[in-house]
Amino acid sequence: MFDKNVSELTSAEAAAELEHIAAEMAKSDIAYYQDDDPYLTDSQYDELKRRNQQIESRFPQLVRPDSPSHRVGAAVKSEFGKVPHRFPMLSLADVFEMEEVDDFFMSVKRFLNTAENIDFMAEPKIDGLSFSARYEKGVFVQGATRGDGTTGEDITANLKTIRQLPLTIKGSVPNVLEIRGEVYMSKSDFFALNQKYENEGKKTFANPRNAAAGSLRQLDSKITAERKLSIFAYTWGEVSERVWNSQEDFFNHLKTWGFPTNPLNKLCHSLKEVEENFNRLMEMRADLPYDIDGIVYKVNDIALQERLGFLTRTPRWAVAHKFPAEQALTTINDIRIQVGRTGTLTPVADLAPVNVGGVIVSHATLHNEDEIKRKDIRIGDTVVIQRAGDVIPQVVEVVKEKRRPDSTEYEFPHICPICGAHAIREADEAARRCTGGLTCPAQAIERIIHFVSKEAFDIAGLGDKIIEDFYHDGIIKNPADIFTLEERNVNLRDDLFARLDDGALHLENREGWGKKSVEKLFKSINEKRSISLPRFIYALGIRQVGAATALLLAKNYGTFRHFMHDMQEKETAKLVAIDGIGPSMATDIVEFFQEQHNIDIIEKLLSRINVEEYIDETDYNSPLAGKTIVFTGTLEQMTRSEAKAKAQSLGAKVAGSVSKNTDFVVIGADAGSKATKAKELNITVLGEAEFLALTQQ
After folding, report:
1. DSSP 545-596
2. Residue 619 CB partners (closer than 8 Å, separation 6+)
3. How far apart are the C-alpha atoms of 478 and 599, rounded to whole Å?
4. Which domain covers residue 477, as residue numbers?
């Protein structure tokens, strides 16, 4: 993720990284705590947090006011009432290695100035949502989320729906008692909920933590009640009279009062016991009925906790020991072949569903036939799965000791599984490709999806699922069919005379459709009957021709008819003469126009739409003319696409990566490694305002 070790950073580079990390983690906190839709994995987030801590330790003068080390969580959603925490709900410092655990134990002893042994309570760290439950005279009166640590969200009604939570506490209990813990969803309940949603055609949850958070933070508590949530209690907040002297004693009180506590909590008397317990839970992790992502160590003696006190946002007496990225064993039930837009055959392993790092994994790409041969992957094999970067599922290795005696090598198909055409592999390529072209349904669907994509025709209302349904129902078989939809449909203004057997499509009668939605679709299509030459070339889905290459072709040919004529005449030499187009790309472009079915579809399109002549309005006298520019991060006043188009109109070349040939790097919010690399190479870095100023000169 990072190009340099912290020890190698200059002060300027450190400041830039701290800025990036603060922005990225703030964005992630909102996604995680407010929206219950995280885009960073736990390991990615932990890596950012750790990197931030390391840089701040080396450069304390650079600690930012918005440093992630100064905050816990994110602000509450406005829909929920706010609940101030009388005592903040703080986070814990994270450690990842046993050496760091040892360092933590030694720091506790040093602070207390003692050589005596100190007992620690080891508690499994539940991957759920933190809650606070307030009791007055033994009656539950208020529930809250952690929120930003000082103010949470009022979830009283929703907490009441969790049957494990006592609504009244019997026996001797402090007049004011705030119990804190974790709401979670068991793996079995998660599977059942997702299966139910799948059957109902609803969006499923990515993992049990998301399911628990999404369930607990419902504005309608009836929805929460329908879902099976569980809790573990593990600490306290405000209390009128503390009647326990240790973590162990507190857990005994919790049990007496009727709160569930984790049965795997363990009092450890030495570092050896701590390590043995960690390894034991690591082995048990996959088989537990709920997700855990580490172990929390707390000084057992409350008097010692009070002596140790707190740092700015974390206690000195507790730490979270995080598990490494998780792997899991599962079985390959089948190897299926997916066919992409350009005909590439990609093998995908269908797996027995398994929980990997809190996400249910049932598929993993096998990349290509060489990868299958290299790892000797076979149907029925037991394999080690991990999520690459904790995101992309991949097969790490085959457990060959568990291979079945009747196992046979996987034979990669030489025939397209979709259309039956030959699948060939060029000598210099790893991919095998279907030769069926647009006669192959898989390629046809993917090409139509590409045709209407944002950088092509950008037709609203034609999503992937609609295109797939329309294709299989014979409504759209190729891109040209899009522009005949309206005339093939019943005349919506004459509904009185419409008949279901009149040969018209009657889209308004399809499930999920209606007159208004059909009219809206037709309006979107009609708005795109005129298109720029670069967009049209890109929309055709020619292999190796992206948006930048399409612009190059438009600049050099001017009109589509001129371009198509030269390609049909196999003017390869002229293509190669264009800076940025090599022999391989030129061959792919020319070959596309040798396929008669491609020409037929293009002619149908040209009879229905207008492809604009390309007029080069590039300002070659601008300060950006001839410069190579890289854009990174999120811009505020325009989209990245708009910024690129603006730069190109001023004679600049837009590149996707930073190199010694780059002249400017334009950075927006959340700029990443490209900004760091620019500084390393002494390349001029521009903010959005500076870039816009150059465009106006």
Report:
1. --HHHHHHHHHHH-SHHHHHHHHHTT-HHHHHTSTT--HHHHHHHHHHTT-H
2. 625, 649, 650, 651
3. 12
4. 437-528
**What does the block give as tokens for 533?**
């030459």
In a domain, 349, yes or no: yes
- Looking at residue 466, its pLDDT comes to 92
The model carries a pTM of 0.47
Residue 17 CB neighbours (<10 A): 26
The DSSP secondary structure of 113-124, one letter per residue, reads T--S---EEEEE
Catalytic annotation present for 454: no
CA distance 353 to 348: 14
| 403 and 498 part of one domain | no
Distance, CA of 654 to chain centre? 26
SS3 state of residue 281: helix
Please tell me which residue in 4, 82, 109, 125 is annotated as part of the active site. Answer: 125
* Domains identified in the chain, total number: 6
**Alpha-carbon distance 35 to 32, whole Å?**
6
First to last CA, the chain: 37
Are 91 and 46 in contact by the 8 Å Cβ rule? The answer is no
Tell me which of 192-196, 268-272, 315-319 is least confident: 192-196
Categorize the per-residue pLDDT at 262 as very low, low, confident or very high, splitting at 50, 70 and 90.
very high
Task: With respect to residue 89, please indicate whether it lies within any of the assigned structural domains.
Answer: no
Asked if residue 622 belongs to a domain, the reply is no
Q: Are residues 308 and 159 in the same domain?
A: yes
User: Each residue of 284-310: b (16+ CB within 10 Å) or e?
Assistant: ebeeeebbbbbbbbbbbbbebbeebee
**What does the alpha-carbon distance between residue 243 and residue 247 come to, in Å, rounded to a whole number?**
11
* Token couple for 82: 């706010």
Is residue 244 assigned to a domain?
yes
| pLDDT category of residue 391 using cuts at 50, 70 and 90 | low
Please state, in angstroms and rounded to a whole number, the distance separating the CA atoms of residues 543 and 589. Answer: 7
| Mean pLDDT, range 445-465, rounded to an integer | 90
Where would I find the beta strands (DSSP E) of 240-380?
266-268, 292-299, 318-322, 327-339, 345-356, 359-365
Return the closest-CA partner of residue 24 out of 47, 56, 7, 6: 47
Residue 496's pLDDT band (boundaries 50, 70, 90)? very low
633 and 488 share a domain?
no
